[in-house]
Amino acid sequence: MKKPSAAPAVTDRHPSPERPRVPERPQAAERPQAPDERAAPGHPSAADWEIAPVAPDHPDAVAVLHRYYADIVSRYHGRTATEEETGAAVAEDARDGLVPPTGVLLLARCGGVTVGSVGVRLLTPDTAELTRVFVLAEARRRGGGARLLAAAERAARGLGATAVRLDTRHDLVEARGLYARHGYAEIPAYNDGPYADHWFEKALV
Questions:
Q1: Sign of CA dihedral 100, 174, 170, 188
Q2: Which residues pair with 194 in a beta bridge?
Q3: Is 64 within 8 Å of 135 (Cβ atoms)?
Q4: pTM of the model
Q5: CB neighbours of residue 26 within 10 Å
Q6: Which helix (H) or strand (E) holds 185?
Q7: Could you tell me if 183 and 165 are in contact, meaning their C-beta atoms sit under 8 angstroms apart?
Q8: Do you find a cis peptide bond into 17, omega within 30 degrees of 0?
Q9: 141-173: per-residue pLDDT in tens?
Q10: What is the DSSP string of 100-136?
Q11: How far is residue 153's CA from residue 164's CA, in Å, rounded to a whole number?
């Protein structure tokens, strides 16, 4: 998460008579900021997020699931996904196992607005799988992915897991970088998902 840039230094607005007045340069604050340098409206920081379990059929969970698949299907095709394509992906989503005692679905909210999600489900009594790891585009680059991973790992421990696994695609470069930074190591394929290209695992200590 990048913090807003520091306030620009005060310029000399009253030059001495001995030297000519030099036109002032635009102050840094007057230049447009990149999107990841300013907080999105309503989502100032991941530190303000509330992450809590919800039922998979909760309206907020269904809404963020559609956003999730619209995002990853668009990236897969290299264009905006159609409603039909997104709907088909949602219909094929495996929602089983995301309720106790086999799993949990967590939503991140900020100011009552859903900004991310992650699902946790047991593959075996001691191994959990993470799924739907997602942060809305307007809330990214503020540390939210790390907070979701930490919450998911706590949930996995609560389910009795000693390790967590996940799969992802080759085009989701940012996600793979996030996992690597937080202790996830690539492993051989543990499933045959049609859109899985990389598999990761982390021991919970």
A1: negative
A2: none
A3: no
A4: 0.76
A5: 8
A6: strand 185-187
A7: no
A8: no
A9: 889 999 999 999 999 999 999 999 999 999 899
A10: TTTEEEEEEEETTEEEEEEEEEEEETTEEEEEEEEE-
A11: 7
